[in-house]
Design a protein that fits this description.
- Chain A: InterPro entries: AAA+_ATPase (IPR003593), ABC_Ni/Peptide_Import (IPR050388), ABC_transporter-like_ATP-bd (IPR003439), ABC_transporter-like_CS (IPR017871), Oligopep_ABC_C (IPR013563), P-loop_NTPase (IPR027417).
- Chain A: Pfam families: ABC_tran, oligo_HPY.
- Chain A: Belongs to the ABC transporter superfamily.
- The complex is a heterodimer of chains A (about 350) and B (about 325).
- Chain A is α/β, with parallel strands linked by helices.
- Chain A is built from 13 helices and 12 strands.
- Chain A has one domain: 3-Layer(aba) Sandwich (Rossmann fold).
- Helices cover about 35% and strands about 20% of the residues of chain A.
- In chain A, α5 crosses α6 and α6 packs across α8.
- Chain B is globular and about 70 Å long.
- In chain B, β7, α7 and β8 form a beta-alpha-beta unit.
- In chain B, about 35% of the residues lie in helices and about 25% in strands.
- Chain B has 11 helices and 12 strands.
- In chain B, the strands form 2 sheets. In chain B, strands 6-7-8-3-9-10-12-11 form an 8-stranded mixed β-sheet, with helices on both faces. A 4-stranded antiparallel β-sheet of chain B has the order 2-1-4-5.
- Chain B has a single domain, classed as Rossmann fold, CATH 3.40.50.300.
- In chain B, α4 crosses α5 and α6 runs parallel beside α7.
- The chains are: A alpha/beta (about 350), B alpha/beta (about 325).
- The interface between A and B is large, with 46 and 47 residues.
Chain lengths: ~350, ~325
């Protein structure tokens, strides 16, 4: 057994010195003859304890596949495809057996999905779904876990926790379901929460409540959050650091303030410029990024953004640039980056 | 002032709620409950609100894709709310719709050329040769190459499919296009392309738009005027700048304060209403917003506020505005 839960204390303490999570050269290449889909193509990033890293990208960027891979949630035959390391608290999750991994899921690392109804169990009360991981992972008695479940529901802002604990998921509104999902995910106070588009299916007033809740829960429990979203405005409000993905790769990574104030990758700059903002006198046309994201089977040899890039040079089409530091904490994968 | 192209007054759409067993009518969902709107030629009216507010149902009722239960829909001066299908035929050409998911609305077994030629065939316009020319012109108008006519919808990306959906809507040279969340399913870099395309087409063709959207930032870039709906009713109507910078209805203010901004550290003092939008099947009494409203008074639970004009073109349905 190599699961973090069974490591000797001093080894865990040593692991606690470094980042909570280190993803190194994560690759998911899917053979679909005659092509190989390079869905995730050498992704590396780190996440510190208590920190929120926003992983942002458009459809097809590989952000959700990255999350599912690091949770080890891919089903066969996809489950065989990933290469690379996902080191959580000193343990490489990629080398764990399914039994070892399920001992960590829900305890050390949890996930919240876009549509809570597809991940909640429709035939189990909300209270039992929160209590179950506490019984399984923390060895709590059913009675104790049931009490703690109601406490969790109160903590996530559900007004009548005793009643909701006995209810089935379909009786709850969309916002309440997402709160219940967050209560389940955080029941065992995991070190890492992976949240995949947690507010995308919600109305804007409910989205604001859930984002506030995630920030409050992070202060309360101290979990690090990997927040996966297509919405840069959500990132701006929630994340400490941001990694921007394009066509299976991270193209830029920076603290949230510098990424928004001085993006160095032309894709990031284009993306930020094209977001509509509420302004008194908007320009008559929104800045566009011409063209479209290349499909995973038709990625160019060099930088995947080169065909859409106004700053492209001959070498951009020849060789993909590496993700290199341009300023402290600020990395970009670009041969001809914008000025800082 | 010239007569508006579209004038909707007291529009109602009620759906029966039936019992599971005997299909007896046991209640009514007032999905659209007395909506008043007007759209001038060449103008964009945005219809905004959260899920269940009735904005999509309103749009479909205007096109008579859903039967209105009451009220009038005057298009070009003529009330079409109770027209028969035969009477509606000439109006169908003049009003078109663009859907959120163009893929679901494009026949996967027809080529794009066939999809775009269909409106001409249905309305018996031109011969085969003439129709092919028209299809090529439509593709050019929306920024697609003429070869696109020979391909099938699945061969296109989301943004290109939305261009095809727009081309189809424009085929019969309509005066009014209703866009039902036309850019909501698109990535942000593609969304900007489609917004710009729709604005360019409006300027070139003199189209009027009713833009149905939950995305206030998108609306702020396309609308001339905005109507905010909540649970079947319009709570505020105003010119674009007034609505975004001088909103009077507490729901509009709450909605605006909830919109996340792409600026780190600028997290405004939120007055986000607590709780979810109630079910439209059992809306709260009086003003539907009163249980979530920070300014609610006893009167708000008892009496639905009438819409009052507070400034030119600015109407608010709130008891706070009462004299």
């Amino acid at each position: 057994m190599t699961a973090a839960a069974t490591l000797p204390r001093d080894a865990r303490a040593a692991a606690a010195e470094g980042p909570l999570l280190a993803v190194r050269d994560l690759t998911v290449h899917i053979p679909v003859p005659p092509h190989v889909l390079r869905a995730v193509d050498g992704v590396s990033f780190e996440l510190n304890r208590g920190e929120t890293l926003g992983l942002v990208g458009e459809s097809g960027s590989g952000k959700t596949l990255t999350a599912l891979t690091l949770m080890r949630l891919l089903e066969p035959p996809l489950a065989e495809m990933p290469r690379g390391e996902v080191v959580l608290e000193g343990t490489d999750l990629m080398r764990l057996s399914e039994i070892e991994m399920s001992a960590l899921r829900g305890r050390t690392v949890s996930m919240v999905f876009q549509e809570p109804m597809t991940s909640l169990n429709p035939v189990m009360t909300v209270g039992r779904q929160i209590a179950e991981p506490m019984v399984r992972h923390l060895g709590l008695s059913t009675r104790m876990a049931t009490m703690r479940a109601e406490e969790m529901l109160r903590l996530v802002g559900i007004p009548d926790p005793a009643r909701v604990a006995r209810a089935y998921p379909h009786l709850l509104s969309g916002g309440m379901r997402q709160r219940a999902m967050i209560a389940i995910a955080l029941a065992c106070r995991p070190a890492l929460l992976v949240a995949d588009e947690p507010t995308t299916a919600l109305d804007v007033t409910v989205q604001a409540q859930i984002l506030d809740l995630l920030a409050a829960m992070q202060r309360e429990i101290g979990s690090a959050i990997l927040l996966i979203t297509h919405d840069l405005a959500v990132i701006a409000e929630t994340a400490h650091r941001v990694a921007v993905m394009y066509a299976g790769r991270i193209v830029e990574e920076a603290p949230v303030a510098s990424l928004f104030a001085a993006p160095r990758h032309p894709y990031t700059r284009g993306l930020l410029a094209s977001i509509p903002r509420i302004e008194r006198r908007p320009e008559p046309t929104l800045p566009e990024i011409p063209g479209m994201v290349p499909g995973p089977a038709e990625r160019p040899a060099g930088c995947a953004f080169a065909p859409r890039c106004g700053r492209a040079q001959p070498r951009c089409a020849a060789k993909a640039p590496a993700l290199l530091p341009l300023a402290p904490g600020h990395r970009a994968a670009c041969w001809n980056p914008e000025d800082g | 002032m010239a007569e508006p192209l579209l004038e909707v007054a007291g529009l109602q759409v009620h759906f029966p709620i039936r019992s599971a067993l005997l299909r007896r009518r046991i209640g009514t969902v007032r999905a659209v409950d007395g909506v008043n709107l007007s759209v001038a030629r060449g103008e964009t009216l945005a219809l905004v609100g959260e899920s269940g507010c009735g904005k999509t149902t309103t749009g479909k009722a205007i096109l008579r894709l859903i039967e209105p239960s009451g009220g009038s829909i005057r298009f070009g001066g003529e009330d079409i709310a109770r027209h028969s299908q035969a009477q509606l035929a000439p109006f169908r050409r003049r009003m078109q719709i663009v859907f959120q998911d163009p893929y679901a609305s494009l026949n996967p077994r027809m080529t794009v050329g066939g999809i775009l030629a269909a409106p001409f065939e249905i309305h018996r316009i031109g011969d085969a040769r003439d129709r092919a020319d028209r299809v090529a012109a439509l593709l050019r108008t929306v920024g697609l190459p003429p070869e696109a006519a020979r391909r099938y919808p699945h061969e296109f990306s989301g943004g290109q499919r939305q261009r095809i959906g727009i081309a189809r809507a424009l085929a019969l040279e309509p005066e009014l296009v209703i866009g039902d969340e036309p850019v909501s399913a698109l990535d942000v870099s593609i969304q900007a392309q489609i917004i710009n395309l729709m604005k360019r087409l409006q300027a070139e063709l003199g189209l009027a738009y009713v833009m149905i959207s939950h995305n206030l930032a998108v609306v702020s870039h396309v609308a001339d005027r905005v109507a905010v709906m909540y649970l079947g009713r319009v709570v505020e109507t105003a010119p674009r700048e007034t609505l975004f910078f001088d909103a009077r209805h507490p729901y509009t203010q709450a909605l605006l304060s909830a919109v996340p901004e792409p600026v780190p550290g600028r997290r405004r003092a939120r007055q986000v209403p607590q709780g979810d939008v109630p079910s439209p099947a059992s809306p709260p009494s009086g003003c539907h917003f009163h249980p979530r409203c920070p300014h609610a008074m006893p009167r708000c639970a008892q009496e639905a506020p009438a819409s009052r004009i507070v400034a030119s073109g600015h109407a608010v349905a709130c008891h706070l505005e009462a004299p």
